[in-house]
Amino acid sequence: MDLFDQQIIPVQLTDKRKSEIIFWPNWLDRPSADALLATAISQTPWREDMINIVGRRIPIPRLQNWFGAQNTSYTYSGIRLQALEFPDWMDKQRIAVERATGYRFNRALVNYYRHGRDSVDWHADNEPELGTEPLVASLSLGAERVFQLRHNKTKERLAVSLPHGSLLLMGAGMQEHWQHRLAKVAGLEQPRVNFTFRYMEP
Ligand SMILES: O=C(O)CCC(=O)C(=O)O
Ligand SMILES: [Mn+2]
Predict the structure, then answer these.
(1) Ligand 1 atom 8: residue of nearest CA
(2) What phi and psi, each to the nearest 5 degrees, are found at residue 91?
(3) Residue 200: which of 86, 107, 94 has the closest Cα?
């Protein structure tokens, strides 16, 4: 891994404030990314959670789980995720991401998009327990993932193609001023997996 191989994408927050997305396209080499994808799919105890939409209970279009300190949990969209302890193979990634970014991460929401019909809709990772300026580092595995961003006020859009083994850091203010999503992809049968590392007060 070459830590200098990083791209910085400047983003406007408000008229006065700017932030950035930092992107490491070659974060993991191909064999490491392949091995991590296989481990993640087979070793993560995947949950299929349900949400209420206009009075109907439907499964979210992806599998997921939440890792962090024992006896803690994370709730979003009415789904309460009790934290599982980081397995060693995932903790190694968490530590490497901390070293490269210079930020602490002690939680991870892990997503498994089984095929192109899976997705996550527009949202921001702005739950109060993530603090006032959450930083989110996202490690991508599997089929290329088109990560889309949309500014809350100006509706400006950005899209970053996230290849197998890449890492993306959303900087301070991104969760307040922008939303993001991973759209469905027609005809895609290959899986996409991502680890979104976050920080919460222990
Ligand atoms: O898969 C992605 O890149 C998006 C995941 C995401 O936004 C989340 O877990 O909050
Ligand atoms: Mn998110």
Answers:
(1) 196
(2) -65, -35
(3) 107
Single-letter code of the amino acid located at 48: E
Q: Which residues pair with 146 in a beta bridge?
A: 161
Measure the N-to-C terminal CA separation of the chain; round to a whole number of Å. Answer: 30
Ligand 1 mean position, distance from CA 111 (Å): 7
pLDDT for residue 78: 87
Alpha carbon distance 115, 201 (integer Å): 34
* Domain positions in the chain: 7-198
One of 1.20.272.10, 3.60.15.10, 3.40.50.2000, 2.60.120.590 is the CATH number of 7-198, namely 2.60.120.590
Mean pLDDT, the chain, rounded, equals 95
The one-letter amino acid code at 186 reads: A
Statement: the pTM of the whole predicted model exceeds 0.85: yes
Give the pLDDT band of residue 195 (cuts 50, 70, 90). Answer: very high
What pLDDT, on the 0 to 100 scale, is given for residue 2? 57
Q: How many CB atoms lie within 10 A of CB 147?
A: 21
Nearest CA to ligand 1 atom 2: 182
> Measuring CA to CA, how many Å separate 106 from each of 50, 92, 136, 138, 146?
25, 12, 11, 13, 25
| SS3 (DSSP) at 65 | strand
